[in-house]
Amino acid sequence: LAPGVSYRRVLLKISGEALMGDQSYGLHPPTVARIADEVEAVYKMGVEICMVIGGGNIFRGLQGSAQGLERTTADYMGMLATVMNALAMQAALEAKGIHTRVISAIRMDEVAEPYIRRRAVRHLEKKRVIIFAAGTGNPYFTTDTAATLRASEMACEAIFKGTKVDGVYDKDPAKYPDAVRYDTVSYDEVLQKHLGVMDASAIALARDNNLPIIVFSLDEPGGFCGILAGNGTHTRVGD
Ligand code: UDP
Q1: Cys-Cys with 71: which of 53, 65, 89, 204 at CB 3.0–4.6 Å?
Q2: From the centroid of its chain, how far is CA 225?
Q3: Nearest CA to 86 among 69, 100, 67, 65?
C-alpha cells in the first residue's frame, strides 16, 4: 500500500451517466477511458478495487415503467444495461494491462462470471479489479443498493461515490449558489433531509453495516486517487 493511504479495499460506485460524456445517451469511450485512468491510479497505490456502475445512460426501469412497460421487465432491462457498461469499463481497464473480472448478478456465463462471494474475494486478493454487474439481480432495487450490498459482502472499508459535485450539499449547488457542503453528515440526516446521496434503502443498509460513503467529484482529474490519499474536498456520510 502506498504511504498515506488508509484504505485497503474500496468500492467505487459511479452512475451510468458518468460514462456518457457530453452525450445525452449511451457510452462515450474516451470518457470511459478517462475513468479507467482514475481507477488505474488508485490500483497502482495498491488498493483493492470493486466497482459498481449504474445503467441510467442506457435504460432506467422507472422511466420504462412510466411509459407503460411492466415494471419488473423494465428493471431487468435496466440491469442488462449495467452489464453493457461493465463490459465497456472492463475493456478500458484491460487495455491498460489491469486484470479484471465482470461478475454478474444475473447469470450470463458467456460474458461474465456468476457471483460467488468467496470467488470474488479471491479475485480481490489476487489484485484483480472486480466490476459487479446487473445490480442486485432483483427488480425494485438500484445500483446504489447493489453497491452497498457488495461492499458489505466484500468487507470494503468504504464506498466511494463519484459524482459531478464534490460532496453532499444542503441543497442543489447547481441551482443555489448559497448551497453549503457538508464535511460529514450522518446517515439519519441524509435520510431525514432527503439529501439525495443514494436512495433510502442503500443509505439504510450502509448505516446498518456501518459502511461509510465518501462522496467526491469524479470530474477532477486525479480526484479518486487524491481522495484516497486524503486530499481533495468530499463529504463523508457515516456515524
Ligand atoms: N436495477 C434493478 N435492480 C438492481 C439494480 C438496478 O432493477 O439491483 C435496474 C433499475 O431499473 C435501474 C436500472 O437498473 O433503474 C439502472 O440502474 P440505476 O438506476 O441504479 O443506474 P444509475 O442511476 O446509477 O446510472
Answers
A1: 65
A2: 15
A3: 100
Kindly state the cell numbers that stand for 101.
473480472
Give me 67's grid cell.
411509459
Amino acid at 34: R
- Which ipTM score applies to this complex? 0.98
Rounded to the nearest angstrom, the distance between the alpha carbon of 213 and the centre of ligand 1 is: 19
Instruction: Answer for the pair 5, 226: CB distance below 8 angstroms, yes or no.
Output: no
User: Is 169 within any annotated ligand binding site?
Assistant: yes
Q: Which domains does the chain have, with CATH numbers?
A: 9-237 (3.40.1160.10)
Is 60 annotated in a binding site? The answer is yes
Q: Does ligand 1 lie within 6 Å of residue 54's CB atom? A: yes
Q: Tens of pLDDT along 47-89? A: 999 999 999 999 999 999 999 999 999 999 999 999 999 999 9
Contact 35, 19 (CB under 8 A): yes
Helix (H) or strand (E) holding 184: strand 184-185
CA 181/CA 217 separation, integer angstroms: 13
Residue whose cell numbers read 460524456 = 21
